[in-house]
Design brief:
two-stranded antiparallel ribbon; elongated
C-alpha cells in the first residue's frame, strides 16, 4: 500500500473520533444508583450498602453528597427468574438435595411438596 493510504486512514480516524465530553459541573451532578436484590436481607445490611454506595460515589465522582440517590429494590424470590425458573424454585430444589447434617432422611418427599 502506498504512503497516501495510511495518511487517509489517519485522517478518517480523526474525522470520526468522538469528542471527549466536557466535565459535568459539580453543582449539576445527580447520580442515581438503582440496586435490585432478592428480598430477605437484614435492614442493617441494606443500610450499610446504601452508606457504602453513597460514600464511594462522593469519592469517585466528586458528587455533592446531598445530590446522590440510592434506590434499593427488593424483589421476592417468586418474581426473580433465571434460566427459566424462579429463584424460589431454585432454593426449594437446593433444599431438597441438601443432606441433613445428622444423617436423617430429608422430610420433603420426591415431589418436593412435603408429601411423604
Amino acid at each position: 500500500m502506498g504512503r497516501g493510504h495510511h495518511a487517509a486512514a489517519r485522517t478518517a480516524v480523526r474525522r470520526f473520533a468522538v469528542p471527549r465530553p466536557a466535565a459535568i459541573p459539580r453543582s449539576t451532578a445527580m447520580p442515581i444508583i438503582d440496586v435490585s436484590l432478592l428480598s430477605g436481607r437484614r435492614r442493617e445490611d441494606l443500610q450499610r450498602l446504601i452508606h457504602a454506595l453513597h460514600e464511594t460515589t462522593v469519592r469517585v465522582l466528586d458528587a455533592p453528597p446531598e445530590s446522590i440517590k440510592v434506590l434499593i429494590r427488593e424483589i421476592p424470590a417468586e418474581h426473580w427468574g433465571s434460566g427459566g425458573i424462579t429463584m424460589a424454585e431454585k432454593r426449594a430444589a437446593a433444599q431438597r438435595h441438601r443432606p441433613d447434617p445428622a444423617g436423617r432422611p430429608n422430610p420433603v418427599g420426591e415431589s418436593g411438596d412435603g408429601a411423604r
